[in-house]
Design goal:
- The chain has 123 residues and is mainly alpha-helical.
- The chain has two domains: 60 residues, Arc Repressor Mutant, subunit A, CATH 1.10.10; 53 residues, Orthogonal Bundle (Diphtheria Toxin Repressor, domain 2).
- Helix content is 70%, strand content 5%.
- The protein has six helices and two strands; from the N terminus they run H-H-H-E-E-H-H-H.
- The protein has a two-stranded antiparallel sheet with strand order 1-2.
- Strand 1 and strand 2 form a beta hairpin.
- The radius of gyration is 15 Å and the shape is elongated.
Length: 123
C-alpha cells in the first residue's frame, strides 16, 4: 500500500519526534502537527495497518524497518530541499513550508538531480 501525502507527513513527524525522544504517543504527534485527536488516531491506524509503525499496549509508537526507510527518505528530501531553497535566498520559514510540499511530489529522478546539484554547489 502506497502512502499518500498525509500518511507521509505523519510518518516524517513520527521520525522527527523519535529522534528527540524514544517514547512518543499519538498525542505527541498531534501536538507536533497541530492535528485533532480523531485525525491522528485514524492516521496511526492506517500506518499500523500498512506496517510502517507499531504501537505497544501502552500506546508508545515505534517505527518498523519499512517505516524507517520511508521516513529517512522523506526527511532527507525535506532537509535537502529546505537547505537548497535557503541557499537560493529564500527565508527559512518559506523554504521549510515549500520543501514540505515539494518533497511529496518530486520524482526520485528529479530529487537525485537536485541533491547532486546542491551537494556540488555546497563544495
Amino acid at each position: 500500500m502506497a502512502l499518500h501525502e498525509s500518511g507521509q507527513m505523519y510518518l516524517e513527524a513520527i521520525y522527527v519526534l523519535l529522534q528527540k525522544n524514544e517514547n512518543i504517543r499519538a498525542i505527541d504527534v498531534g501536538a507536533y502537527l497541530g492535528y485533532t485527536k480523531p485525525s491522528v488516531s485514524r492516521a496511526i491506524g492506517l500506518l499500523k495497518k500498512s506496517e510502517h509503525i507499531s504501537v505497544d499496549g501502552d500506546g508508545y509508537i515505534t517505527m518498523t524497518d519499512k517505516g524507517m526507510r520511508v521516513a529517512e527518505q522523506l526527511y532527507e528530501r525535506h532537509t535537502v530541499l529546505t537547505n537548497l531553497l535557503m541557499a537560493l535566498g529564500v527565508d527559512e520559514k518559506t523554504a521549510t513550508e515549500d520543501a514540505c510540499r515539494i518533497e511529496h511530489v518530486i520524482s526520485e529522478k528529479s530529487f537525485s538531480a537536485v541533491k547532486e546539484h546542491y551537494l556540488h554547489y555546497k563544495e
